[in-house]
Predict the 3D structure of the following.
Amino acid sequence: MAGQVKRTLVTAERSGLHQYKGDILVVGLFEGTKRVPREYAELDKKAEGALSGVLKLGDFKGKANETAVLYPGGKLGCRRIMLVGLGDNGKLTLNTIRQAAGTAARAADKLEAARMGLALHTIAGNKLDIEQVGQVLAEGAIAGRYAYQDYMPAKKEGKSSAALRVVLVESRAAAVQKFNRGRKIGIAMAEGQNRTRMVANKPGNEINPTTLGREAQKLARGFGLKCKVFNDRQLSEMGMNAILAVGGGSINKSRLIVLEYKGRGGPKEPDAVVVGKAITFDSGGISIKPSANMETMKYDKSGGCAVLGILTGAADLKLPLHIVGLIPAAENMPSQSSYRPGDIVRTYSGKTVEVQNTDAEGRMILCDALAYAAKMKPKAIVDMATLTGACVIALGEHKAGLFSNNEPLRKRIEKAAEISGEAVWPMPSGEEYLEQMKSKMADLRNVGGRGGGACTAAAFLGEFVGKVPWAHIDIAAVADTETEKPYRSGGATGFAVRLVLEYLRSLK
Ligand code: BES
Ligand code: ZN
Ligand code: ZN
């Protein structure tokens, strides 16, 4: 039943473009290129004018992620040349290169290539940092080839489940060295992202709080992380009543998963606690959701799954930091044991919350986890959650909402977003929004009226972190996608893994 996992091996090699031997060599072209650039002159000559031919005919425009495959004559050691469009020369970023690498790797799969040479950067000259280019090429190829195929019939998988060797082709020795440094970082980043997607894509009948705990323990063993899973009885003793309330309606009882990575030289107090919402299925509970698109609520565990990718990724990168991961996990179901609208819950922090809508469950499980995180006195807390439909409306699927009580932390995450290509947008929160979350009979209520739904949710969460620098990333719109792109498959995106790993890398 469990399908094969596609393996992507990335190495770097010192070689001229025209000397590279493999199934396919990938080069980039900017939009509107009319003549063969001098970087490709030798290649074109050996390929008996295959490149100049295409450009002359105007069959290839160079739009971002456009592809064309050429079949050069026998003088070249490589049987195919693939052109990938890089779009407007003036708008080139690391993400252009990352996407182009993903596009190439996915196109190579269709051609059943086993060995692909990537030289997408050659044309970019010295515009981009070569180490970072090595990183994003590896990221693009590895994340690009990922596909969820656990339940795919074997015959459908075809050769696309075979391994692909990706070789970063570079002719300058010094650049190969830098490539290799970046490549190793990129591999850790993208493999972390893919581990997150592997779990996040699994359906609700497979992943519930208990089985998610087992996945975490399995991963922790593989990466030398500490892992402790608190069961419902233990959560009750600890006073984690909000996590328990949300899972009350399900036979799959709530869990709190705690992961710990201690890199060499890490201090006693964590450098960061990373918290992720894991609702393994969000039906809405008694405040039940409409049935249209409810199946996508298996992705409501994406924040928690991101924690798995981040902690294993941090271990893979051997970051010299002390990082704790917290995954509050529950299944939100309607039944006679469900929590109800009107219930008042005494949360782990001691603050009481009046439940007005059982579908606003993410902030409930997070408030216990955040209060637990704050007790560890970390230097920072970062949480990720598919928290609000309001954030989907506000930003669409192009950016995640970023909230923070600390400007330097916000700036650091914005910088990490630029590098990782996982875009965030600064959102407001604070006093006025918190006002909307006040209850007549408890400290807080769990919904805040019509306006600013993403901001009131953030204001609620902010009440549980004390004075610890904290950032909240609302990933409701970006954690999963229906649409396949040339550079990635549909389903869980693993959003926030590369972003938060990049942030953590900036701390060392
Ligand atoms: N998991 C949802 C948020 C969500 C919506 C994620 C759409 C992805 C796509 C969350 O638990 C929820 O239902 N939030 C409610 C809160 C409301 C009841 C205050 C929402 O956004 O409608
Ligand atoms: Zn909900
Ligand atoms: Zn939810």
Remarks:
- Residues 308 and 359 are 25 Å apart (CA to CA).
